[in-house]
Design goal:
The C terminus is likely disordered. With about 240 residues, the protein is mainly β. The protein is about 10% helix and about 65% strand. It has an eight-stranded antiparallel barrel with strand order 1-3-4-5-6-7-8-9. The protein has a domain of about 160 residues: Porin (Beta Barrel), CATH 2.40.160.20. It has two helices and nine strands; from the N terminus they run αββββββββαβ. β5 and β6 form a beta hairpin.
């Protein structure tokens, strides 16, 4: 009786390897997809730095000129948005700053004074990301308010201008976390020429033309909001 049951079981055990060989291979178990850091998204932050420039002025109709170097602390806030494709990052950023850039200069008995109380820019940014490190170039339009004054010959004369120009520079940014980053940046700005009428200082029909340029270095921080949609993922191998 027992023998009658054992014989079929022994036959099944012998056939098991052949049956297993005919089965399709098991699907490989995929490793979980690990999200990568992305620079894409809306961000805002603040910056502080130091600016120094050159005010090259010419007095007409006399034709004499000179230059001096306004300088001071700059600081404010910025907001921007980045897009990222593989390593390449492109975005748009705007900033506005209050500044302490000013200087007075007194050649020939006339006191010239230049101040920049406020400035700002709208710029594009193009960069290459090495994971959490972003190297970028930036450039676009810059605007500023200028206060100029003259005294020493005749009554005190003061003028105010809103001047537009261009700016270009570059920087490096490092993402401390997925949302917070710090940066260092340098920019050169050319505000072009502005002209003041100065009839009470140099006589009827006289003007002073200024050519304003600025260099500035800034350190800043940004908070990046989580990007809309899914974050980029690692490729499957």
């Amino acid at each position: 009786m027992i023998r009658r049951f054992l014989l079929p079981l022994a036959g099944l055990a012998a056939a098991a390897p052949a049956i297993a060989a005919d089965l399709p291979p098991a699907a490989p178990v995929e490793a979980p997809i690990v999200p990568l850091f992305t620079w894409a998204g809306l961000y805002l932050g603040g910056q502080i730095g130091y600016g120094w420039g050159t005010d090259t002025l010419t007095v007409y109709p006399f034709g004499f000129g000179t230059n001096f170097t306004p300088n001071g602390v700059v600081g404010g806030a910025h907001v921007g948005y980045n897009f990222q494709m593989n390593q390449f990052v492109a975005g748009l950023e705007g900033d506005v700053e209050g500044t302490g850039i000013s200087r007075n200069f007194s050649p020939g008995g006339v006191l010239y004074d230049t101040q920049i109380p406020v400035q700002g820019s709208i710029r594009g940014r193009l960069g290459v990301a090495f994971d959490r490190v972003l190297l970028y170039a930036t450039g676009g339009g810059e605007f500023a308010g200028f206060n100029t004054s003259y005294s020493g010959i005749g009554p005190f004369t003061q003028d105010s201008h809103t001047q537009a120009g261009w700016t270009v520079g570059g920087g490096i940014e490092y993402a401390v976390t997925n949302n917070w980053s710090v940066r260092g940046e340098y920019r050169y700005t050319d505000f072009g020429h502005l002209t003041d009428a100065t009839p009470f200082v140099f006589g009827l029909g006289s003007t002073v033309t200024h050519h304003e340029t600025e260099n500035a270095v800034r350190a800043g921080f940004s908070y990046k909001f989580d990007a809309f949609g899914a974050a980029p993922v690692a490729a499957r191998y």
